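STRUCTURE:
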């Protein structure tokens, strides 16, 4: 029994260390995963994955739930979010760490408004929704950044670092192609559902707040920003619209070391507009406009072994 316990502890330690090893997408292969079956005339935007379920969002807050199986997508349900409205661009989506009810199939879904238009006088809103495969969605919390000094332009999007229980805001300070624009990251403890139906965040309470260009000038100030996702210590930032002028590029920002770990040009493999992304089985699933969903699989180098 002693040796069995020791072996289990060693296995747990090895798995923990393996989970912390960053995935290197240099020389990665890109495969078409599946087409999307969304609502017509609404662009694809945010995306989130839980277990083998993929939630695809579209502009104004339309949602489609798919089952990921046999290297493709099976559509299960399509519906408007509780936050569906013209001023909801639904640019980024994340599953959180809490469930509204312990028996819910999915954790709470966090949706970034990411629009120039205000919602009830508020800007930079994160909608927190309870969704399921059978029942109507419910808006259970609204998170808003009080930004009196104008730290962000119009495209603040929210991500969740589940490992550290953090809510991370990322976006432009002016506008994507604006003069003097930079890209800011701001970090807060992830609000709990018990904090109430409306949660106001203030920069003075931020755990961290910086512009990427102040720390690594290789990250361009002007580009067409898209979604983003977090895995381990890294934030994956897809940019561009799949054109020669604004190519499809993936930037990998190290949140702990505060530097770029990688810059990868995927324009030849994905001549479509990148949207949102999510880690899945040591690869990266990317939702696009025009190219469906693609899977970016790392080259089997020394840092990419299971």
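SEQUENCE:
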């Amino acid at each position: 029994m002693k040796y069995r316990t020791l072996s289990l502890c060693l296995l747990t330690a090895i798995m923990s260390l393996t989970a912390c090893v960053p995935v290197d997408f240099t020389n990665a292969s890109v495969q078409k995963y599946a087409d999307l079956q969304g609502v017509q005339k609404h662009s694809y935007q945010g995306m989130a994955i839980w277990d083998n379920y993929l939630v695809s969002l579209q502009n104004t807050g339309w949602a489609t739930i798919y089952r990921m199986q046999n290297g493709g997508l099976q559509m299960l349900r399509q519906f408007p979010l509780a936050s569906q409205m013209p001023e909801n661009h639904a640019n980024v989506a994340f599953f959180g760490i809490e469930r509204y009810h312990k028996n819910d199939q999915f954790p709470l879904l966090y949706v970034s408004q990411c629009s120039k238009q205000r919602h009830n006088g508020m800007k930079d809103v994160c909608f927190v929704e309870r969704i399921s495969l059978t029942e109507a969605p419910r808006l259970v919390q609204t998170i808003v950044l009080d930004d009196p000094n104008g730290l962000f332009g119009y495209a603040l999007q929210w991500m969740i670092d589940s490992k550290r229980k953090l809510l991370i805001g990322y976006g432009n300070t002016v506008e994507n192609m604006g003069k003097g624009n930079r890209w800011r990251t701001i970090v807060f403890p992830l609000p709990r559902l018990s904090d109430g139906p409306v949660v106001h965040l203030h920069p003075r309470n931020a755990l961290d707040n910086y512009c990427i260009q102040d720390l690594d000038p290789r990250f361009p100030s002007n580009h067409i920003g898209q979604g983003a996702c977090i895995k381990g210590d890294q934030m994956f930032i897809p940019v561009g619209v799949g054109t020669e002028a604004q190519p499809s590029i993936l930037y990998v920002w190290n949140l702990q070391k505060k530097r770029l770990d990688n810059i990868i040009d995927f324009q030849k493999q994905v001549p479509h507009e990148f949207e949102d992304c999510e880690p899945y089985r040591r690869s990266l699933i990317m939702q696009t406009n025009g190219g469906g969903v693609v899977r970016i699989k790392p080259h089997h180098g020394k840092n990419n072994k299971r």
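REMARK: Confidence is low (pLDDT under 50) at residues 1-19.
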